[in-house]
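Example 3.2
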Amino acid sequence: MSLRKGLLRLVVATAPFVFFSVATQTRAQSQDENANAASPLYKTTSIKLSKSNPHAGGTIKTGRDEWTATNEFLGALIAAAYDVRDDQIVGAPSWLNPYGPRYDIEAKADGPAAEEGSESMLQRLLSDQFKLAVHRETRLIQVYELTAGDGSKLRESAPEYEDSPLRVIQVEKGRIVGREVPLATLARILSDELGRPVLDKTQLPYHYDVTLLWQVSPDSSEPEIVNAVQEQLGLTLKPQPMPKEFLVIDHVEMPVAD
């Protein structure tokens, strides 16, 4: 039985990470990217506000000389153009998120321009139509390392038989209960609850039965859940700084839709 089939709720947290300092800035590289994106290369371009259901999701398709997006928001287009994840984009206006405008876009390149590749083509389109300018920065963010010492209290799951309970993970406020839970999955759930990355450094390869309960505070659940992980599971959540690359939005405008 796959974990996906048994999963009751696993929500990806959207809370922002905590920035501590700027480690390096790669503005020279970003200036080259912006310069490459400065001039249009499409012989035809159509941008329309999408009339599709915003909850239906969007699609991006690329070909040798054409590029299309259906029901996509700008943040997804930027992530695809610069090969970053959504959580690496900072400095974006509020309308850039999934709840902002969504677009249907068709663009076709002409001649040698089509040889530049889909990412470069999309960067050019965003620069031309959305006046997008960006630069890259590497910043230090705070993460947690999940580690296991000699005091681990985890109970390895019994072998699964035909009549065994389904592999299930229940996540509620102040409660995580699961059967056959890999530690990497537990780390992802803890990331959601803490609002910052949790890295699995336990080196524990098996699946475990997990019961974790903690008092939810209206101000912050962080100290309670950190202590609960230590006391109930025998694992340690240790804060650590980690460098991470971000794509910083310097300028962007809404396009004039067709």
